[in-house]
User: Fold this.
Amino acid sequence: MLKTDRVIVVEGKYDAIKLANIIDAPVFRTDGFGIFKDDEKLELLRKLAESRGLLILTDSDSAGFLIRNYLKSSIPEDRLLQVFVPDMPGKERRKAAPGKEGKLGVEGIPDDVLIACLKRAGITEAGEEDPAARAGARRVTEQDFYEDGLSGGTGSRQKRLALQKQLALPERMTAKQLLQVINMLIPYDEYKELVRTL
Assistant:
């Protein structure tokens, strides 16, 4: 079982239930868009972020990214660790039909995929490791993204999408989110090799 002292933020109760068998950590539910109207809950999240740090784990659909971005704009970035689940088509067992975008949410992602996503973010059985240290000394920068055609040029979005697909990341990520995640996932040399194949 994985372990972290950070508070994991998820959208709903079924996401929390799913994580109970995977990771030893406190879990906080936003109750979907309920977080937008609940100032007390947001204030509590700010306090938890300050004292323990937060790990945001929302669905890869538009609703999940809205919640993720809202939290990111409300809480200091150095107190957040973002974990992204890949876009996976399907529906959760308890639902009669797939969601609007036809993607699995956190509750429907297979355990092994979810565990791999958490491990890529630096979560281990012993607790967190420093993802930057795991990724090696040389970090990928915004300048690298520009020089490699992943930002600021014609076709850069398509290149980023191709890279995201190779890394099993959701398509809704911004360039800045992708850069942050790449530095958590892979060393610089591996990044350069992937870019060469685009």
About this structure: The mean pLDDT is 90. The CA atoms of residues 133 and 184 lie 9 Å apart. The beta strands are 2-3, 7-10, 23-24, 27-29, 54-56, 80-82. The radius of gyration is 17 Å.
